[in-house]
Write a structure and sequence with these properties.
The protein has helices at residues 2-23, 27-56. It is an all-alpha fold and 69 residues long. The termini are far apart.
Length: 69
């Protein structure tokens, strides 16, 4: 439990540090930073989806009917 609280506090401190660093960038640099960050988030999301699909196996063929019909 203590480790979670400590990790949470460290995460908040890291986030505050990032905000401070971003504030020091020029507006053009901030736009580029957020563009790159968004691209990384999309890439990570796609990688996670691929891992989940690989773990779950192939999707069932055809549309599924609601249960009870």
């Amino acid at each position: 439990m203590e480790q979670r609280e400590e990790a949470s506090q460290q995460g908040l401190a890291a986030g505050e540090g990032m905000e401070t660093l971003v504030a020091r960038l020029t507006p053009a640099q901030q736009i580029e930073f957020y563009r790159v960050t968004a691209s990384l988030a999309i890439a990570c999301s796609e990688a996670i989806r691929q891992v989940l699909e690989a773990m779950a196996g192939p999707a069932p063929a055809g549309p599924r009917e609601p249960a009870g019909l």
